[in-house]
Amino acid sequence: MHAAHEPRIRYLSSAACIGCGGICEILNATDFRRAAIRCCASGNRAGARRVRSGKAGSIVDKRAVLSRHKLFWEAPQAVLDRLALRAQPLTFRCGQRIFCRGDESHGLLAVVSGHVRISAPGPEGRSELVMNLIGPDEVFGEIALLDDGPRTADAIAATRCCLLLLERRDLLPLFDDFPVLAVRLLAILSGRLRRTSQQLTDQAFAGAEQRLAKVLITLAGGSDRDGTRVLTTQRELGHMVGLSREGTNRHLSAWQRKGYISLVPGACTIYDHKALRKIAQGHTASEI
Fold first, then answer.
1. What is the pLDDT along the chain (288 residues), one digit of tens a residue?
2. What sign does the dihedral 136-12-95-128 (CA atoms) show?
3. Cα separations in angstroms, 97 against 8, 153, 196, 229
4. What is the phi/psi pair of residue 118, to 5°?
5. Positions of E strands within the chain
6. Are 120 and 166 contacting, i.e. CB atoms less than 8 angstroms apart?
7. CA distances for 65 relative to 13, 187, 203, 221, 247, angstroms
8. Which of 68, 66, 53 is nearest to 16 (CA)?
9. Domains of the chain, with CATH numbers?
10. Quick one: 171 exposed, middle or buried, by C-beta within 10 A (0-12, 13-18, 19+)?
11. Are 280 and 206 in contact (CB under 8 A)?
């Protein structure tokens, strides 16, 4: 129901034209083919190597990015070349919806930078159920990729993020040519199921403070380096742990007073990873 009250995603990003390899301006997550048609109709014949530079921008960059993802570890160079040619770079702002449950699936998405939360929307006015948090060098959207059905959950940018879209029609033939990729995808699915099981266990039995500490550690990329900055909003953190913004702020402000973190609009800097890890293990801030 929430989608009816929210306009479709409108953002500007660039992607390689499906028809000619030129640059397309993408308006929303379902606009890939229309953008390609506009691009070809306008006579833009820029080659695929002219795709905007930067993270995941050029063919070379995309090949390097894909090679770091678990699904494509040690993949033959020919596989990486084929995928890099077709992979479409997309960027999303923090809090922006990538796709909704029930949307048509266009393929698999690989995270280049940032984090994406996978969640099931609750009834009108109720909080969502967060099932997974996907980070750099991971992929998501694999269920719809395999069965060609609609999306089974919502995907929302938990931070600003950069993604690569790998279309189903480009990926499935590779599973026939290189069966090891299919085996890797099954391993990823198994790992995702384990994480979802742990996430649901935490939602049921872990306290809000413990869940919040776990999410901050995850968003920090598992780094133990004090001074790590996490770019996300308190509202987004609340969504990820099932808290209101006010409840989230109460815990974060208490940690800030103790010197564990510092807060600025849109970001949280961690200064005491050891303290947060103890809280994530079930200790309260007053016990540390």
1. 444 433 333 333 444 444 443 444 444 444 444 444 444 444 433 322 223 334 444 555 888 889 988 888 878 888 898 899 889 999 999 989 999 999 988 899 999 989 999 988 777 656 677 888 898 888 999 888 888 889 989 999 998 999 999 999 988 888 888 888 889 999 988 988 888 888 778 878 889 999 999 999 988 886 778 889 988 889 889 988 888 899 999 999 999 999 999 999 989 999 999 999 999 998 877 777
2. negative
3. 9, 11, 20, 23
4. -105, 125
5. 13-16, 23-26, 88-92, 97-99, 107-113, 116-120, 129-134, 139-140, 154-157, 161-167, 228-230, 261-264, 267-270
6. no
7. 18, 20, 33, 17, 37
8. 53
9. 2-6+53-200 (2.60.120.10), 206-287 (1.10.10.10)
10. buried
11. no
Of 218, 210, 222, the C-alpha closest to 251 is 210
Q: Name the one residue in this structure whose structure tokens are 């890939």.
A: 32
Contacts of 126 (CB under 8 A, 6+ apart): none
pTM of the model: 0.68
Task: Tell the residue number behind the tokens 């660039």, with chain if given.
Answer: 14
What is the number of residues in the chain? 288
